[in-house]
Amino acid sequence: MNAYETIITPILSEKSTNLRTLRTYVFQVSLRANKHQILDAIKELYNVTPVTCRTIRMKGKPKRLRRESGYTSSWKKAYVTLEKGASISQLDGA
Description:
alpha+beta; two-stranded antiparallel ribbon; 4 helices; about 30% helix; globular
């Protein structure tokens, strides 16, 4: 699995924006990716040195469309903390 398959998209929300002050960035990642693959992909794509990675599996939410009921897709979220003094300038808007 290459870096572009591992990291799907950065998550830009109010909570993730507040976490950037703590050098923590939030990404949607592949369900098959493990923590080591996520750290390697961040290092390759953004040229920064990540320190830790925490992952969460997000369950799909129940949805309804008229009479049909179902669920949205499950996905995986990763919180990546960078070393002191580092930042990802593409996501910080600088």
